[in-house]
Amino acid sequence: MSSLNKAMLIGNLGQDPEVRYTQSNTAVATLSIATSERFKDSNGEYQERTEWHRVVAWGRTAEICQQYLSKGSKVYIEGPIQTRQWEDKDGQKRYTTEIKALQMVMLDSRGNAGGGNQPGGNQPQQRPNQNQNQNQGGGKPMSSNVELDSNFDDMDDDLPF
């Protein structure tokens, strides 16, 4: 049987996305996402546990993260878990485990991204180009700040009903 390497997270950004560019001018965004769970301990008291996840987005997805996400934004991330190895400045081998964001869906309501502390937070924003990988999961690729064109008079269809 094959194996499966897929992580799915719904959480909040702990800080604004950090975006860098490779030598070939490809955007790379690093996100820190917190997920929390509530449970009853053995004494019957509610406890909360928060886990922090390192997420890396590439290309247009990284640019969208930079443009639309900020600290506190609620987001859905889906992609494989990867471990990278590198040498630090002292020559020591270092490892990091991260989630490669293949799909990102903003879950904040309109004008509420990042807690609404950005100027113009209640203004509708234009939708970026949707021909990227993050739109292949069937979910909403952006938050609900999309104005759809509802001019159906110009449509020419051959429906039998």
Report on the structure:
The chain is mainly β and 161 residues long. Helix content is 6%, strand content 39%. It is built from one helix and eight strands, in the order ββββαββββ. It has one helix at residues 59-68, and strands at 7-13, 18-21, 27-40, 46-58, 74-79, 81-87, 93-100, 103-106. Strands 1, 2, 3, 4, 5, 6, 7 and 8 form an eight-stranded mixed β-sheet that branches. A hairpin with a 5-residue loop joins β3 and β4. The radius of gyration is 20 Å and the shape is globular. The chain starts with 6 loop residues before the first strand and ends in a 55-residue tail after the last strand. Residues 115-152 have low confidence and may be disordered.
Topology:
Elements lengths: L6 E7 L4 E4 L5 E14 L5 E13 H10 L5 E6 L1 E7 L5 E8 L2 E4 L55
Parallel strand pairs: 4-7
Antiparallel strand pairs: 1-3, 1-5, 2-3, 3-4, 5-8, 6-7
Quick check: average pLDDT?
79
The gross shape turns out to be: globular
Largest sheet: number of strands, sense, barrel closure: 8 strands, mixed
- Percent of residues in beta strands? 35-45%
- The chain-level structural class is mainly beta
Report the helical percentage: under 10%
Low-confidence stretches: 115-152
List the secondary-structure elements in sequence, H or E: EEEEHEEEE
Radius of gyration based on Cα positions: 20 Å
Number of strands: 8
Q: What is the count of DSSP helices, taking H or I runs of 4+ residues? A: 1
- The rounded distance between the terminal residues' Cα atoms is 46 Å
